[in-house]
């Protein structure tokens, strides 16, 4: 009797072990306190995740460049990055691919009482720009100004810097306007600063009406093809987690410590801007719009951002089918 009980218990343990072994481990490189960290925290808080066919292991990253190195070295399976980078990698023979994560990008922000109300008003002003000369928001803003016969690159005094530094520049009145990444722009807005235009508004001005993701999950196509079902389920769960953060106050309250923000106005604005980045539609039209954006960036950056390829590389956007 004891032997039978032991044997049954042993078989159950083997069975459970086999089942657990079937789960796909997804190692995701995540910048501490970044929005991907919010989403994964919400996903892992969902009881249904325990029965999913994947297991998430978060790998902390110091910054975006560290993420790219970790992905290319195989230290992680996935990071959040942009499709321009993916296309440039594919043009050199790599097999990385992209799945949409967020459509929120940067914004042009000024003090509430600023005389600046349009891009033309930037003439002769000091403009703080997050990143460098090849920042996508900066290149696209130049393209929009060009439509109004304005050479923005020559028209403003440029101050480049890291996003937190750029915010400090405008708070200390060292610049007249800032073009910053969305979460830094949101922090300024919560403090009374005024948005002139955001990334989506810039694209609309350039005739691109589709909601094209600015960021997405990036991973090896060969790896993805070996884990299609688990990956598809992860993307669905990730989408559901984002929706919960946008519709459930209790879910949002749980991840507030990850925002590193104490005041309610900033928390509220961060949530608003984060939720505006939801990708509701991702198909042929959006991918064709991405090709048009690519062409603009390829030309304006003189190939420095995109690489030599005139077009987005086939396979840049992942499809499980």
Automatic annotation (TrEMBL):
Q: Which Gene3D superfamilies match?
A: Periplasmic binding protein-like II
- The leader peptide range reads 1-20
Please identify the protein, giving its name as recorded. NitT/TauT family transport system substrate-binding protein
Keywords in alphabetical order: Signal
The answer to whether the entry has keyword Signal is yes
Q: Which InterPro entries match?
A: SsuA/THI5
- Which residue range or ranges hold the SsuA/THI5-like domain? 105-241
State the source organism's domain of life. Answer: Bacteria
């Amino acid at each position: 009797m004891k032997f039978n009980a032991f044997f049954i218990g042993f078989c159950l343990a083997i069975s459970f072990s086999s089942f657990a072994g079937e789960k796909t481990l997804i190692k995701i490189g995540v910048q501490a306190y970044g929005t991907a960290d919010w989403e994964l925290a919400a996903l892992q808080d969902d009881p249904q995740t325990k029965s999913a066919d994947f297991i998430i292991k978060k790998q902390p990253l110091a910054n975006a460049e560290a993420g790219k190195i970790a992905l290319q070295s195989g230290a992680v399976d996935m990071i959040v990055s942009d499709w321009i980078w993916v296309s440039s990698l594919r043009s050199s023979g790599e097999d990385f691919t992209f799945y949409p994560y967020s459509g929120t990008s940067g914004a042009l922000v000024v003090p509430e009482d600023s005389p600046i109300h349009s891009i033309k008003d930037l003439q002769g002003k000091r403009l703080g720009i997050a990143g460098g000369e090849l920042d996508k928001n900066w290149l696209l803003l130049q393209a929009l100004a060009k439509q109004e016969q304005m050479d923005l690159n020559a028209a403003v005094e440029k101050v480049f810097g890291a996003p937190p530094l750029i915010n400090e520049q405008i708070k200390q009145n060292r610049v007249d306007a800032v073009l910053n990444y969305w979460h830094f722009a949101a922090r300024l807005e919560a403090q009374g600063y005024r948005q002139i235009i955001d990334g989506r508004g810039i694209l609309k001005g350039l005739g691109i009406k589709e909601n094209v993701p600015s960021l997405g999950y990036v991973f090896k196509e060969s790896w993805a093809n070996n884990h299609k079902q688990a990956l598809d389920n992860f993307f669905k769960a990730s989408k559901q987690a984002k929706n919960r953060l946008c519709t459930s106050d209790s879910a949002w309250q749980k991840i507030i410590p990850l925002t590193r923000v104490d005041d309610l106005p900033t928390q509220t604005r961060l949530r608003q801007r984060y939720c505006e980045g939801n990708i509701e539609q991702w198909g042929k039209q959006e991918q064709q719009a991405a090709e048009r954006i690519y062409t603009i960036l390829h030309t304006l950056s003189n190939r420095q951002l995109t690489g030599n390829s005139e077009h987005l590389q086939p396979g840049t956007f992942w499809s499980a089918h």
